[in-house]
Amino acid sequence: MVSKRLSGEAGHRRKFMAVVDGTPECERAVRYSARRAKNTNGGLVLLYVIPEHDAQQWIGVQEFIRAEAREEAETVATRAAESARETVGIEAEIVIREGDRSEVINAIVEEDRDIAILVLAAGPAKEGPGPLVSLLAGRGKSFTIPVTVLPDGLDDTDIDALC
Question: How far apart are CA 11 and CA 31, in angstroms?
């Protein structure tokens, strides 16, 4: 069970969260989240989840891989935040964590009780709907807040009109 959301209480505001991973569908989710946050006087959280690495590697190699993954995460998340700032005029909170995506998403939602909506975007049908949408639909793993899934094929104009 998720903790009570605080976004409706005085001194709080509803936050939209998008998971960033550098995919085209992630860009659409960020745009939608940023527009909805801006239009509703809310906040924007961009989450990058670094997948867990095999712990059986040599310590030096493992640390090098983790450092590279962290650098990649910071680059992708910063690029997404800059896009939100430039196109929508909203500042995003960037959160970078390592672990299982669904577990990390739920942990972040539990930590920040202003996060009220998770936004995902489906990928092209020939490649599947995208890793997070597949996770949500395929394993029956539920997230603890409402999830908005943008269909594939929406362009920037469509997304702006929806917001």
Answer: 25
Q: To 5 degrees, how large is the angle CA 123–CA 41–CA 75?
A: 45
DSSP letters spanning 39-105: HTT-EEEEEEEEPP--TTS-HHHHHHHHHHHHHHHHHHHHHHHHHHHHHH---EEEEEEES-HHHHH
Question: Torsion angle, CA of 67/68/71/76, rounded to 10 degrees?
Answer: -140
Both tokens of 117, joined, read 């909506």
Sequence-distant (6+) residues with CB within 8 A of 8 are 14
Running along the chain, 163 residues long, what does each successive block of 10 average in pLDDT? 70 91 90 96 96 67 83 96 96 95 90 93 67 53 80 89 89
Is residue 69 within 8 A of residue 96, CB to CB? The reply is no
